[in-house]
Design a protein that fits this description.
It is a single chain. The chain is of the alpha+beta class and about 300 residues long. It folds into two domains: about 5-80 and about 95-170, no CATH class; about 190-310, no CATH class. It is built from 13 helices and ten strands. It has a four-stranded antiparallel beta sheet, sandwiched between helices. Strands 3-10 form a two-stranded parallel ribbon. Strands 5-6 form a two-stranded antiparallel ribbon. The protein is globular and about 65 Å long. It binds iron/sulfur cluster (2 copies).
Length: about 300
């Protein structure tokens, strides 16, 4: 098969399995992105995520991650939920309403791998869903699936930014796509709306100030000065995506139906949930990432802000 035919095959198989968008880029060093990542790390914007300092070469060059690789296949899967949370607090990031995306996407990628091998024979590849040192947004941008906005998310001109990203690094030679231009223009809605001013400059997020990092990755006591800035977020934060005009194009999907508790529970009901029922309720959910203790810490932080305003 020619690279063009191979790309067309991967595209049609991936779309048939339910992925929303597919794009192709040449496996090579991400020069500009390496420079930006280095600056971001030296500024300490990664907070306690020290693992981000590791594997710099692998992170910035897929040929180090998988020797002999020639191409990166980028895949996008919509997670914009149909359901809306009933209460203003506690807010949970939309990507975590339903089943853990790692499991769903890994299973879709496994099927894609089997189907491709049946048609093109054996090839060398590795698949990634948020699971290895790979700069997923940079690859999706190179593959022309969107641009990285001032909120640092990959934005599709057709459907906004509520998408999971996944990649296959492989030794297949494919026909490559071209990047598109940046359509943020003069808009600054995400910078203006960020409750903690975590977007320090276009595309540069200081994790130490970001509610998403603080409520999920950060393990210590939440900074008291942020008590009134959380805007009800208890797991992640969607503000910089919710205000993005491109997300008016988001269409809801049914692959990740929301858990009933995510939609209907208020802060009090959540706080009454013990560790056992938390673990049972969120078996196979991304919310387990904070563990019961982390989720409770976030809820109590919200409650303490409520007490201040009473
Ligand atoms: S996720 Fe929330 S806190 Fe983080 S940059 Fe976006 S708006 Fe700001
Ligand atoms: S809100 Fe505006 S500036 Fe921010 S990412 Fe969206 S289009 Fe770009």
């Amino acid at each position: 098969m020619t690279p063009k035919e191979l790309s067309a095959l991967v595209n049609s198989e991936a779309l048939a399995l339910g992925f929303d968008y597919v794009g192709f880029s040449k496996a090579e060093k991400l020069e500009e992105e390496s420079f930006r990542l280095e600056n971001w790390l030296s500024a300490g914007h990664h907070g306690d995520m020290l693992w981000m300092e590791e594997n710099f070469d692998k992170r910035t060059d897929p040929r180090v991650l998988l020797p002999g690789s020639k191409s990166v296949i980028s895949l996008m899967l919509n997670y914009y939920p149909e359901e809306k949370q009933k209460f203003a607090e506690p807010k949970i990031s939309k990507y975590a309403y339903g089943r853990d995306y790692h499991k769903v996407i890994k299973s879709m990628m496994k099927k894609l791998d089997v189907q491709l091998r049946a048609k093109v024979g054996d090839f060398v590849s590795r698949s990634f869903v948020d699971s290895a040192p790979i700069m997923d947004r940079a690859w999706a941008e190179r593959a022309g699936l969107g641009w990285i906005g001032k909120n640092a998310n990959l934005i599709s001109r057709k459907s906004g930014s509520f998408f999971f990203l996944a990649e296959i690094v492989c030794d297949l030679e494919l026909e490559y796509d071209s990047p598109i231009k940046d359509y943020c223009g003069t808009c600054t809605k995400c910078l203006d709306a960020c409750p903690t001013r975590a977007i320090e400059s276009p595309g540069v997020i200081n994790s130490n100030k970001c509610i998403s990092y603080l409520t999920i990755e950060f393990k210590g006591d939440l900074p008291v000065s942020y008590r009134k800035k959380m805007e009800g977020w208890a797991f992640g934060c969607d503000v910089c995506q919710d205000v993005c005009p491109w997300n008016r194009l988001s269409k809801s999907q049914s692959k990740f139906p929301a858990k009933e508790q995510v939609i209907n529970n208020d802060v009090k009901t959540w706080l009454e949930m013990d560790e056992k029922s938390f673990n049972e309720t969120f078996a196979g959910s991304a919310i387990r990432r904070t563990k019961h203790s982390g989720f409770k810490r976030n809820l109590e932080f919200l409650r303490s802000a409520q007490d201040l305003s009473d």
